[in-house]
Write a structure and sequence with these properties.
The complex is a heterodimer of chains A (583) and B (163).
Chain A (H helix, E strand, L loop, with lengths): L1 E5 L2 E5 L5 H7 L25 E4 L5 E3 L10 E3 L3 H16 L15 H9 L22 E3 L9 H9 L5 E4 L6 E4 L15 H5 L5 E3 L3 H9 L4 E6 L20 H11 L3 E4 H20 L8 E2 L4 H10 L13 H16 L7 E7 L3 H5 L16 E4 H10 L21 H4 L6 H15 L17 E8 L2 E9 L4 H14 L7 E5 L17 H17 L9 H11 L5 H7 L12
Parallel strand pairs in A: 1-5, 10-11, 10-13, 12-17, 13-14, 16-17
Antiparallel strand pairs in A: 1-2, 3-4, 3-5, 6-9, 7-8, 15-16
Chain B lengths: L2 H14 L6 H13 L4 H11 L3 H10 L11 E6 L2 H5 L2 H12 L12 E6 L11 E3 L2 E3 L7 H17 L1
Parallel strand pairs in B: 1-2
Antiparallel strand pairs in B: 1-3, 3-4
Classes of the chains: A alpha/beta (583), B alpha+beta (163).
Chain lengths: 583, 163
């Protein structure tokens, strides 16, 4: 432990704690634009706003990347420090376009808040805004480099946390700019659309493509019958936009809001997550117990992970579960099963998904399989952030809404469906069902604590009828490499498989930390949101997907049994190698 | 360019620097000597051979002014903006060249004939202001001479093309 003084207050922190973090513990906020509080991101020391000094010294230190040392006496705020910070902010403003009112980050921008905090009322320096065009080539992540302040968060997360290397810095000095490597469009880069860049951007330089207009258009068209689904992770994050405590579960208020916005049926992706488990657990049992197909089986709910694998790890295609992601399953079920049952014309059905994710916007047109109903199965994807905006646009007083239920039967879920939103959740849900499928027995305890939590790679094993099932759960794409290397090594050396079943989620923490979630994600927030989901699971009477009576009804009335021909046609997909340049 | 040929050439260059720290920049130097610039196809192959992310290669190429991403013009026009040349009207000469060739420093004319660049001191300050075209140095250049000088080179090329 290190003992020091900050602004006259005694502090004691673990070694290597930065001055910035130590000050935070003493309730002192040192402003910064480049250091994100998320522990996954490194300090780049790019912005120069977090300057502090050792008492009596003229020299300034950057608090974000200077560890607090024993006996230091730090001053974080004095007239000179504050004046310098103010000048730095003014300099940022001098190359930042004044488009706040129409910016995607208006009212939610770190630069804007800092300018407001400093009370800057005049622009002192000559304005030079770089003329770099917008890049909306991907159709889901939009780059607006003119608004970039070169904080390096996006580049850090893209290269080091996600190992994608789509974004980098080009040129130097004043001409430095964030861009895909070599002046290509983002769509031609290895970008997997995870949106972690957008989630960490302090300004409006990277954000999700706004599809709220499309959604409103569909809702206001009397010819269209609009159906909505919400993903597991949305329910424990949306509340943040309306002042609810971190991780608060606002599922039933969301249902009410969506109904008031004009949706004809409110469904829940948790239901189709249960269906995904029926298919994926059956697939696992086929491969594990009946030796039909290669092991390990790898989960495919995450479209960024699918894209990443198709680009960089296509040797793993045979190991991929062919089961579609839950929201795609919901889309196709709405346009087939639900349409038939309610005598609705699927051509007039619009399925809108509310997702914690920017990659889901890309997934809906990923391949022909995403139109298994004969129409594009999901029409519009909104992120959690976009839904928050729409609720505000609709004049709905969200905090005071009464709670309503979802619609039958595609809105009725088990506890297993809801935990999909946290890393390890899909694995836990699949194990609950796979256990029963193999043994025909009920699990004595449904919780698998070992696959929960924020450790980058979680390895464990469980016993099913005496056979050991070895498991790995990875989140944050950079963590996947280790897991896949273990598999390749064993395959090459002809050794026993290190794992039989692997879950991968692209975003750290899983979907709760998704690229489309409300801003400011940290481990504290990821944990709070995951806790919200695990509480939702505990609150359900049905905790296993195969015990969900409505899932059983769906199979009885429509699909037959898991992996049936119909299920294959509607609920499964194929993968192909994408030769995007290597990283 | 044929990928197989590029691969062989790049591999030869890369192999001579294998395992040496900071080899990327040296390999890029040699690649530019070989091709006159660093073509994207070559960077892609290099990324694979050196196991360096393409993004990192582009960071280096764009960071150093030395490296080029486009083919050089047939004739490189270097305008000196060192102290002496600057004081003797280097900026005016540069402006005239920009105007006549319709390019900015660092760019190549559309017909690929001229590449314009700015240099700091060619070591012959007594001749200021100095313009170098290819290996030939022009001293005491006046704004009104600029047109005539470059016409010689364009005519040169036209005559050759015609022949």
């Amino acid at each position: 432990m290190v003992k020091a003084v900050i602004n006259g207050l005694k502090v004691e922190v673990p070694e290597k704690t930065t001055i910035l973090d130590a000050a935070r513990k003493a309730q002192i906020k040192i402003p910064t634009l480049c250091k994100h509080p998320d522990s996954y991101l490194h300090a780049s020391a790019a912005c120069g706003i977090c300057l502090v000094r050792v008492k009596g010294s003229k020299k300034m230190l950057r608090a974000c990347c200077t560890p607090l040392e024993e006996g230091m006496d730090i001053i974080t705020h004095d007239p000179e420090i504050v004046a310098i910070r103010r000048t730095v902010v003014e300099l940022f403003l001098s190359n930042h376009p004044n488009e706040c009112l129409t910016c995607g980050r208006n009212n939610n921008c770190e630069l804007q808040s800092l300018v407001a905090d400093f009370g800057i009322r005049e622009e002192f320096y000559e304005k030079i805004v770089k003329d770099i065009p917008k890049d909306d080539s991907t159709g889901n992540i939009v780059l607006e480099p003119r608004k970039c302040i070169n904080c390096a968060r996006c580049v850090d997360v893209c290269q080091n946390v996600q190992d994608v290397w789509a974004l980098t810095f080009l040129h130097r000095g004043f001409n430095t700019r964030m861009a895909p490597a070599g002046d290509i469009s983002l769509a031609d880069s290895p970008c997997v659309r995870c949106g972690q860049c957008a989630a960490h951007c302090p300004t409006g330089a990277i954000f999700e493509k706004d599809d709220t207009v499309l959604a409103w258009k569909a809702l206001r068209d009397p010819e269209q019958y609009c159906v909505v689904q919400i993903a597991p992770a949305v329910r424990v994050a949306l509340g943040e936009a309306f002042g609810f405590p971190l991780g608060a579960n606002v599922t039933k208020k969301i249902y009410t809001a969506l109904r008031r916005m004009g949706f004809k049926a409110i469904f829940d992706t948790n239901f189709s997550a249960d269906v995904t488990i029926m298919e994926e657990a059956s697939e696992f049992v086929e491969r594990f117990a009946h030796k039909k197909g290669p092991l390990p089986l790898i989960t495919t709910c995450c479209p960024s992970w699918v894209d990443f694998m198709e680009k960089f790890h296509h040797d793993m295609i045979p190991h991929f579960s062919s089961a579609k992601s839950p929201h795609e399953m919901m889309g196709v079920l709405v346009k087939t099963y639900y349409a038939e049952k309610n005598k609705l014309d699927p051509a007039k059905l619009k399925v809108i998904s509310v997702m914690p994710c920017t990659a889901k916007k890309f997934e809906i047109s990923r391949s022909h399989d995403m139109s298994a109903s004969g129409f594009q199965d999901v029409d519009v994807v909104l992120t959690t952030r976009e839904l928050a905006r729409m609720i505000k646009q609709a004049g709905i007083d969200f905090s005071n809404l009464p709670e309503e239920d979802s619609d039958h039967i595609l809105g009725d879920y088990s506890g297993a469906g809801t935990i999909f939103g946290a890393t390890g959740g899909v694995m836990e849900a699949a194990l609950r069902t796979a256990y029963s499928f193999v043994t025909g027995k009920k699990l004595p305890k449904v919780e698998f604590e070992n696959v929960r939590g924020l450790k980058g790679v979680k390895e464990t094993s469980i016993k099913i009828e005496g056979a050991e099932v070895k498991i790995a759960v990875a989140h944050g794409l950079a963590n996947v490499e280790y897991v896949l290397d273990q598999v390749r090594k064993a395959q090459k050396e002809g050794k026993p498989l290190p794992y039989h079943f692997i879950e991968v989620m692209a975003c750290p923490g899983g979907c709760v930390g998704g690229g489309g979630q409300p801003y400011g994600v940290t481990d504290e927030l990821r944990t709070a949101r995951a806790k919200g989901l695990y509480s939702d699971d505990e609150a359900q009477t049905v905790r296993c997907s195969h015990e969900n009576p409505y899932v059983q009804q769906l199979y009885k009335e429509f699909l037959g049994k898991p992996l049936s021909e119909k299920a294959h046609h509607l609920l499964h997909t194929k993968y192909q190698p994408l030769p995007i340049y290597r990283r | 360019m044929d990928k197989a040929v590029i691969e062989q050439e790049v591999r030869e260059i890369a192999d001579s620097w294998k395992g040496k720290e900071g080899n990327l920049i040296m390999v890029l130097h040699q690649i530019q000597n070989r091709y006159g610039y660093v073509p994207r196809e070559v960077s892609l192959v290099l990324s694979e051979i050196l196991d360096v992310p393409l993004a990192r290669i582009y960071e280096v190429i764009t960071f150093y002014h030395f490296f080029r991403l486009t083919p050089p013009g047939k004739h490189t026009i270097s305008v000196c903006m060192g102290t002496a040349c600057y004081l003797k009207g280097g900026a005016e000469i540069l402006g005239e060249l920009e105007h006549l060739l319709c390019v900015k420093p660092g760019e190549t004319t559309k017909d690929g004939q001229f590449h314009l660049e700015v240099v700091r001191c060619l070591g012959c300050c007594g001749l200021a202001p100095v313009v170098k075209i290819g290996e030939k140095v022009y001293g005491g250049v006046k704004k009104k001479d600029v047109g005539d000088i470059i016409t010689q080179y364009s005519e040169d090329s036209e005559a050759k093309t015609a022949a």
